[in-house]
Amino acid sequence: MDHGAHNMAPRCSMHMLWNTQIIDTCVVFSQWHIRSNLQFVFSFFAIVALGMLYEYLRVFSRDFDKLIAMKIRIQSGRRTPLTRSGQSSPERQGDAEERGLLNGLRVARNQGCAVPPLYRVMRAVLYGASVGLSFFLMLVFMTYNAYLIFAVVLGAAVGHYILGGTIEPNGPDKGMACH
Length: 179
Known about the structure:
Layout: E1 25-26, E2 33-34, H1 37-75, H2 93-101, H3 117-141, H4 146-163
Antiparallel strand pairs: 1-2
Helix pairs in contact: 1-3, 1-4
C-alpha cells in the first residue's frame, strides 16, 4: 500500500490535558498555528500583552466610572463626595441598623445617579471589550498548555503591578475573571 500520496501537512494538535507542546500548537484559532519556536515566543509575548491589556481595561473602566460620577456630581451642584447611603456626610455605623434591621424595615440600597446616554454607550463598549478579552484569555487557558497558561497569568500580574499602584480600601476590586 502506497502512503506517499497522502497529504501529511502539520496539523493543530488539541490536548485536553496539561501539556508543554510547542510545535503544532494552535491558539484559539486554526489560523494561529505555531509551527516554530520563534512563533511560539512571539505568541507567548502576545498573550502576555493581552493579559496586560485586560488589566488596563479593568483599571481604565474603573477610573472612567469615577470621572463620570465626578462630572455628574459637579453638574448637579454637589461638590462633596457621596457616601454609600447617598449622603454627603458619613453615616454612623448603627444608623443603618436602627433604620432597617432592628425595626424590620428594608433598607433601600442607593441606586446611584442616572448616567447620560453617551457615557452609557462608552461604558458598555469598555465593558464589552473587557468581557470579550477575558473570554478570549479563558480560551487560551483552555489549550491546557503550561507555557500559554503562564503567559496569561504573567500578563495579568505584570499589568496589575504596573497599573495597581493605588488601592481604595472601601472600593470594590474585581480580580481577573471571565466575567
